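fyi for ur records
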Amino acid sequence: MRVLKALSALLCYPSQDLRDAMGEITLLLTTGPGLNAASIAALEPLTTALAIQDPFDLQAAYVDLFDRGRRLSLHLFEHVHGESRDRGQAMVDLAQVYERGGLLLQAGELPDYLPTFLEFASTRPDGEALGLLGEIVPILTAMHEGTAARAPTYAAVFAAILLIAGHTAAFVPLQAPVDDLASLDAAWEETTVQFGPGEDIAGCGPDRLRHRLRAAGRDARVAV
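which gave:
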């Protein structure tokens, strides 16, 4: 599912390298399978902005949106463990899943970074890729709703990923944001997320990981 790699690129920091690749990325989004005409049209304002707008403005807006708090963090385990020590082991386990699938991370690259997760999913067979996406649907939904009010161009990316995962992104009025550590810890009960040694990727199925993300039966908008 190469379109996932293009979508992952749109969620990366708007560097010059990304700007230089926008023609190829746009071509893949518009010609590759997986997206419908409405999704492609919704992505156009972002792809156009990344290609032509002032890079410093784009970078400032990106940092303000994704790096100012946990609620819209692009690191998956921020939405699960926060800063608890369980996050470290969960990332080690996820990195091992990547390694077994043939993706080796660069030094300093965190495995729970959403664009990395999507890039890995793009290399897997379609059924496996859809299973991986299914595991993070609650987080994707919360991210879509969180960006819809603040940055609709980026909300279109999350809507497109949800579409590929077989879910319709619908805007729901947001709960008050949870930004402080005490409130976040109260919102999440601690449970270790593991992609354990000895388990193959197929064993890391949607139901099991979704449970370990503690999203089952919980409104992700409240928790994220």
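The two ends are 27 Å apart (CA to CA). thats all i got for now
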